[in-house]
Design brief:
Elements (H helix, E strand, L loop, with lengths): L4 H10 L4 H16 L7 H20 L4 E5 L2 E6 L4 E7 L19 H16 L13 E10 L4 E12 L5 E9 L3 E2 L24
Parallel strand pairs: 3-4
Antiparallel strand pairs: 1-2, 2-3, 4-5, 5-6, 5-7
Helix pairs in contact: 2-3
Length: about 210
């Protein structure tokens, strides 16, 4: 686990990233959400922040990182490094070095496949050395949690290693804890049931 500011900066640099850009993407997503009211549909509050955060992340990391959408599964990828970043809301353990955090919303098949690829990469103890025509990435999760009591958003960039049958991530190969983002605006606190995930398996009835 990486928490020391210098160590965080060094580790992120190895991944072609900067903490300021990641935190700015999360903050932009938060700003967009503060414009919503109780009259917006409940599920839209989480969906709005997710979409705005993904867009801001892609803008912050451009041009080295580019967008890649697998259906509704949104990734930001570095094709040279064969790395990908997915965005997810996390539980209260997010950003807490002493906790064992997980995603708030159930994950679907695309996330399961990404974690399986991560397991293969870990097995060989190196970043994915793929040929140019292969599309597999090592997928990290930029996970955020809004703590209304403390008035902060906790953030971490972490590498998922296993996932349970309930769609919740159960283990991380690595966690990079970023500095929390304080806020003092009047955010409408609405907790949608399980939150949006945008990684949904839809099957036709037999």
């Amino acid at each position: 686990m990486t928490t020391n500011p210098k160590s965080v900066a060094d580790r992120l640099a190895e991944l072609g990233l900067e903490e300021g850009r990641l935190r700015e993407a999360v903050f932009q997503g938060h700003l967009q959400r503060t414009r919503l009211t109780r009259n917006h549909p409940t599920i839209y509050h989480g969906l709005n922040m997710w979409g705005e955060l993904v867009a801001a992340l892609r803008e912050q990391l451009s041009p080295e990182w580019v967008r890649e959408d697998i259906g509704s599964y949104a990734l930001t990828v570095n094709e040279l490094l064969k790395l990908a970043i997915a965005v997810a809301s996390g539980d209260e353990g997010t950003g807490d070095p002493a906790a064992h955090p997980s995603n708030r919303s159930r994950k679907g098949r695309n996330t399961v496949d990404a974690i399986e690829a991560n397991r293969q990469f870990e097995l060989f103890e190196l970043l994915p050395p793929k040929s140019d025509n292969e599309e597999s990435y090592q997928t990290w999760v930029l996970m955020h949690h809004t703590d209304h009591v403390r008035g902060e958003i906790r953030v971490e960039l972490s590498l998922p290693l296993s996932i349970g049958a309930d769609g919740k991530i159960t283990a991380w190969a690595e966690r990079i804890i970023l500095s929390s983002i304080p806020f003092d605006d009047q955010l409408v606190e609405i907790n949608p049931p399980s939150g949006p995930d945008i990684d949904i398996d839809i099957q036709r009835k037999a």
